[in-house]
UniProtKB/TrEMBL annotation:
<keyword id="KW-0677">Repeat</keyword>
<dbReference type="InterPro" id="IPR027417">
    <property type="entry name" value="P-loop_NTPase"/>
</dbReference>
<feature type="domain" description="Nephrocystin 3-like N-terminal">
    <location>
        <begin position="48"/>
        <end position="212"/>
    </location>
</feature>
<dbReference type="Pfam" id="PF24883">
    <property type="entry name" value="NPHP3_N"/>
</dbReference>
<protein>
    <recommendedName>
        <fullName>Nephrocystin 3-like N-terminal domain-containing protein</fullName>
    </recommendedName>
</protein>
<dbReference type="InterPro" id="IPR056884">
    <property type="entry name" value="NPHP3-like_N"/>
</dbReference>
Amino acid sequence: MLMQESTTGGFERLQEHVGHGAFHDSGERFDPPKCHHNTRVAIIKRITDWISGLNEDTRRALIMWLYGAAGAGKSAIAQTIAEILDDQHFVLASFFFWRNDSQRGTSKMLVTTLAYQLAVKLPLVFRERLGLAFENDPLITKRSLEAQFKTLVREPLLELLHSGFSTNNHIVVIIDGLDECEDPQVQARIVDLSFSLLHSRDIPLKIFIASRPEINISSSFDRKPFSTLARIALDDGYQSEEDIRHFLADKFNEIKTQHPLRSYIPVGWPAKDSLDTLVRKSSGQFIYASTVVKYVASLHHQPTHRLEVVLGIQLPKAGDSPFAELDALYRHILMGVEDVTLILQVIGCVVLHPLHHYYSSVTFIEAFLSLVPGDVIGCVVLHPLHHYYSSVTFIEAFLSLVPGDVQLLMQNIGSLISVENHPYHPNGAVLTVRLLHASLKDYLLDPSRSKDFFLDRIKMHTHYAELCLAHMMELPVLQSNLSRRPFMGMSHMF
């Protein structure tokens, strides 16, 4: 009887350290983002097949990592998976990180929150072992994450198995938004600990982790054995554009049938080209489409007018912020990186295309200085590439950076920018910088939205002109030609 009281006391102590707002079904997360009906079908099937052991390629993997750009819909997928597993009566524990919440923005309550959820759903043996752990060590929550995982998850599960417990399905832990955990080093530690927890393959547990591909997290996953890990890149391979088009079409139909001012909405609204523009601006990231729908669907405004504001046909009213949610995301990411000024210069080379703007001036200079066509462009290794791509070689030469600097810089902003081989270049080996969000350009070029991150076109192009002149002055053939001509100010050459 004394043991029963002690165990109960320990379990009550555990509850004091539970971040209940991190549950997938928490009241604090009421109406959380989830996948729209008939979207993300292939990716959800792949995840659920992995959990059920139905996919031969991922059957031995005990951990799955879903990663993608900021706003790509990772949390919606994690939420949908959690609800599916709940409906199918899986034993499930979840932790949805969120940087703006004291309980969910750090790892302090991660293990205790997961352990509590398992204790509620598993047989009493697990709860009793958990309670004893708190009785034996009342300060267990002050110990390392390693110690907490061992004492509050692994050992109670082993005790449960030794008691004769068995299950046809794996117990599932979902950790969403790992990149939202405030300490990047802790993010990597959580990945490492997840693998350590399952290293012996002696507990029926699978862990699903969703995050942006931040450098600490990616590096930690890259060091793990292939056989234990399954990866899913949330990219164009999963028909995200088609899903976004379907989502937008459904939501606009809802507005046309349910909005209080629906009688003022034309039958053919929105026009096909408007829908095409929204899909293109989304760049495969659901956050843009979701932000647009929330803004347009406002019950206190004309939907047709609000869509025109989004499309840039009408100006927003004073104090109106059509992309407030998106702007907050961009700002948070940019504020969290070092060398943001240099990063913005690199992004400026992508969105403002200095090659395209100065090509006519370069042609004139080559003729004026009797250079071979292409000499000036070649001196800084300029490559006219696909829209929203820019050659890493060009950027590093143009900005006088050391080879490799661009990749190092972009590691810190991988959820918005990708460094990759250009998919359409005939060579196939040209490393380029690509914007993952087409709407990032709109944000950076609008001072009312980006504020101190604003890319001023005039200042940037003035800077580009200065860089062009500086590079051209370094050309031996240019110096030779100048020595044979009367000097004239460089400003007269434009």
